[in-house]
Amino acid sequence: MSFELFLQASKYNYSIAQVYLGKCYNDGYGVECNKDLAFNWYQKSVENGSIIGEFYLGNCYEFGTGIVKDIIRSVYWYEKAAKNGNMTAKLYLADCYRLGKGVEKDEIKAFEYYENLARQEIADAQYQLGNCFYNGVGTKIDETFESHKILAEQGDINAKFRLGYCYDEGIGTEINKVKAFELYKVASEKGNNNSLYNLSFLYELGEGVDKDDKKAFELIKKLAKKGDLSAKYKLAYYYYKGIGTETNKSKAFELYLAEKEYLDAQFQLGYYYNKGIGTEVNKSKAFELYKIAAEKEDSNAQNQLGFYYVSGIGTEKDLEKAFYWFNKAAENGNVVAQYNIGESYELGSEIDNNLSKANYWYHKAAEDNNKFALYKLGEFYELGKGIRKNEVRAFEFYKKSADQGFINSQYKLGHLYSYGTQIDINKEKAFDLYKLAAIGGNVDAQKCLAFLYKQGERTEKR
User: Are 408 and 379 in contact (CB under 8 A)?
Assistant: First the structure.
């Protein structure tokens, strides 16, 4: 019904209706999803003077929605919308300046945007401003602490929050959770919402104050009622986990559902539909939501979408599309996807076998200490798969993985201690590792452990 009304109004050049019609086509709401038509209607809305349409047009160019991806054009439309007062466009523009996307990198300009938006209680801007203070982006850390201290002493409420954050995170000073709590409390009582949010964390964790989950819940609920998006997500998490309240997964689901326009909520809703949390299991809806989030460059959603295509969950099985989304997620830094893409190249399941590329992606995942990738690298070096054999390197990778409790690596490490040629043989260490892996369910380790028991070599029967 909404789609039909928007369509009728759009024919009379009502720009806001054209924007909503574009969103219907983009999200598949009341009509089949069509990104090209979404772009066309956003463009028509702009021709009719829509400011929010300018933002959506920029968004289309940034992510290649219905049009060839063009970061420079996206910045152009973000700037147009920002000059016309669109807050979301200002936030996206700040990100562009911070990262140098489609524009010359300018951290000071990004900081200024975040600071101005944060003063207007834009939660995402407050979060990014905190990151700027923490990492010294567009500002100097030491100067930041001193300037906040001076302004806080003069009674500036926002400065009290920022000073509290400095004490909370140890920015320009030593960490002092008690001082952070005190400053957050004063600022929150004067209406600073960001302080209210951080106070809930301190109550939840028991940092700077006695742990009080109920108080944490009350503060987040209060902030969520004010419309704070981050607080709504946190409240959903509290209901999901039963923190400070009874577990209520239906309420958690409803909170995410109410914010389904936003990226984080779209991913979480996909997860809830996938697992049947607070609602019935619906793999098709989960797929649709993951796809929307994936197209907005959410790497977790991209990886999940790849898994859905591999397994044919909520959609038809399509190994080519699976590889595409795994690859997108991997390029966006998703460690699980980096492992998945490495496995695809190793096994030749979704793409032609290529051990060199498999080795590259396993190394990328291993940089973040992924235990599965570390195990695979150990295997590559042990067996000489696509690289020269090197038992010492294999041992190093297996050990890093085994230290994280991965039973297959524990078994392999035990094997090298038993039969290694470049590693000193140590039957006692081999026994201990086999035992760990065997308890975890590794069948090969169980067989080796039985053999060592039978032989009784260099170990007691324990």
Answer: no
292 falls within a domain: no
Q: pLDDT grade, residue 143 (50/70/90)?
A: low
461: which 2 tokens?
């029967």
424 backbone dihedrals φ, ψ, rounded to 5°: -60, 130
Residues 6+ apart with CB under 8 A from 63: 69, 295, 296, 297
Instruction: Tell me if residue 220 falls in helix, strand or coil.
Output: helix
Cβ neighbors of 59 (< 8 A, separation 6 or more) are 65, 74, 92
Q: Is residue 441 part of a domain?
A: yes
Residues 6+ apart with CB under 8 A from 317: 309, 310, 311
pLDDT, mean of residues 377-400: 92
Nearest alpha carbon to residue 383 among 406, 418, 403, 355: 355
Residue 88 resides in a domain: no
User: Taking the model in full, what pTM does it have?
Assistant: 0.62
Pairwise CA distance, residues 409 & 403, whole Å: 9
Number of structural domains (the chain) is 1
400 and 365 in contact (C-beta within 8 Å)? Answer: no
Q: Which domain holds residue 433?
A: 383-462
Of 230-239, 343-352, 430-439, the range with the lowest mean pLDDT is: 343-352
Rounded to an integer, the average pLDDT of 100-121 is: 86
CA distance 65 to 62: 8
Tokens 């007691």 correspond to 460
Give residue for tokens 């809806």. Answer: 285
The continuous run of DSSP H or E covering 418 comes out as helix 407-419
Say which DSSP state 276 is in: T
Closest CA to 234 of 127, 120, 334: 127
- Tell me how far the alpha carbon of residue 302 is from its chain's centroid: 11
Q: Does a structural domain hold residue 445?
A: yes
In whole angstroms, what is the distance from residue 21 CA to residue 218 CA? 38
- Find, among 324, 336, 274, the residue nearest to 295 by Cα: 324
